[in-house]
């Protein structure tokens, strides 16, 4: 496989693991997602499909779309992480039944996991862009 294809493959694996991980948390561990969790899912789930199709077709033109989804999703993850970790920081009023300040895994918060995934995908897309311009 050539380098751009490896970057697409890596981004797809990250998106797939993040998607399956969030489904595991909600469907197996029965963690109720808060409002910000849903927004993060909106920006992650489509990437598993979009990046798979791009990988299958060797379509490197996917990078701006995936990058945009990752930047917005990462921003939401940052906001969510700040809401959980910074006392008094509550710019978003999450609706019941689950407030956005709930931490199911305090040692490795779910928004941090999402932020890492979004960052890895965004970096892959930036590297893909650089490879294509060479």
From TrEMBL:
Keyword Translocase in record: no
Keywords: Chaperone, Disulfide bond, Electron transport, Membrane, Oxidoreductase, Redox-active center, Transmembrane, Transmembrane helix, Transport
Pfam families associated with the record: DsbB
Record keyword Disulfide bond present: yes
InterPro entries, A to Z: DiS_bond_form_DsbB/BdbC, Disulphide_bond_form_BdbC, DsbB-like_sf
Predominant cellular place of this UniProt entry's protein: membrane
GO molecular function: protein-disulfide reductase activity
Gene3D superfamilies, per database record: DsbB-like
Subcellular location(s) of the protein: Membrane
Transmembrane segments: 7-26, 38-56, 63-82, 110-128
GO CC annotation: membrane
Membrane topology: Multi-pass membrane protein
GO biological process: protein folding
UniProt cross-references to NCBIfam families, sorted A to Z: PRK03113.1
PANTHER family in alphabetical order: DISULFIDE FORMATION PROTEIN-RELATED, SPBETA PROPHAGE-DERIVED DISULFIDE BOND FORMATION PROTEIN B
Similarity comment: family membership: Belongs to the DsbB family. BdbC subfamily.
Protein's name according to its UniProt entry: Disulfide bond formation protein DsbC
